[in-house]
Amino acid sequence: MSILSINKIKLNAQPKDKFEAIRMAGQLLVDAGHASAAYIDKMLEREQTLSTYMGNGLAIPHGTQDSKSLIISTGLSIVQIPQGVDFGEGEKANLVIGIAAAGNDHLDILTNVAMICSEDENVELIMKASTPEEMVRIFESGMES
Questions:
Q1: How confident is the model at residue 108 (pLDDT cuts 50, 70, 90)?
Q2: 95: closest CA among 4, 7, 9?
Q3: Whole-number mean pLDDT of the chain?
Q4: In the predicted model, is pLDDT for residue 14 greater than 70?
Q5: Of 75, 109, 114, 115, which one has the greatest count of Cβ atoms within 10 A?
Q6: Within a 10 A sphere around the Cβ of 91, how many other Cβ atoms?
Q7: Which bin fits 53, alpha (ψ -120 to 50), beta or left (φ > 0)?
Q8: Which helix (H) or strand (E) holds 75?
Q9: Are the beta carbons of 14 and 83 closer than 8 angstroms?
Q10: For residue 33, what are the CA distances in angstroms to 36, 74, 83?
Q11: Known catalytic residue at 62
């Protein structure tokens, strides 16, 4: 099973707040079989203790330290939010990337995602992506295997 696939991408989302955006990202992971439904609560819990906003319009919500048992397999979900959603302190996220990482995959995935999204031209491509297939291509070209 691929870490990222077209069924884990939501384009042109319009969440009312960051918690709804995180729920969307989490639900994509749950629907794809990467995590149990309780993992979404852990993603929300993490956000309440520490913002997962990374800068450059990117938020990477993931579960708390004690949520490992809720993860079935490693997966990524992407929610593209053209209008952006407020992540607090005036920071708007246009891209919310949910992570469920089994074992020790967590840091490698965070690093890869951060590297891809630190390039302005990649962020531009991601925001202009009009199909899930296009989004997968952008991320797969930047992921280290």
A1: confident
A2: 9
A3: 91
A4: yes
A5: 75
A6: 18
A7: beta
A8: strand 75-86
A9: yes
A10: 7, 10, 29
A11: yes
Q: Which two tokens stand for residue 142?
A: 């930047």
Q: HSE (CB half, 13 Å, CA atoms) of 121?
A: 1
Tell me how far apart the alpha carbons of residues 73 and 29 are, in angstroms, rounded to a whole number.
10
> Distance between CA atoms of 33 and 27, rounded to whole angstroms?
10
98, containing H or E segment: strand 92-100
Backbone dihedral angles phi then psi of residue 104, each to the nearest 5 degrees: -105, 25
Helix (H/G/I), strand (E/B), else coil: 117: helix
How is residue 130 written in tokens? 């009009």
- Candidates 62, 67, 87, 101; catalytic one: 62
Q: How far is CA 21 from the centre of its chain?
A: 9
Distances (CA, A) of 82 to 41, 55, 79: 25, 16, 10
Token pair recorded at residue 1: 């099973």
Q: Is the pLDDT of residue 141 over 90?
A: no
Checking if the pLDDT of 67 tops 90, the result is: yes
State both tokens at 69.
Answer: 């048992």
Closest CA to 100 of 82, 76, 116, 120: 76
Question: Which pair of structure tokens corresponds to residue 64?
Answer: 């708390």
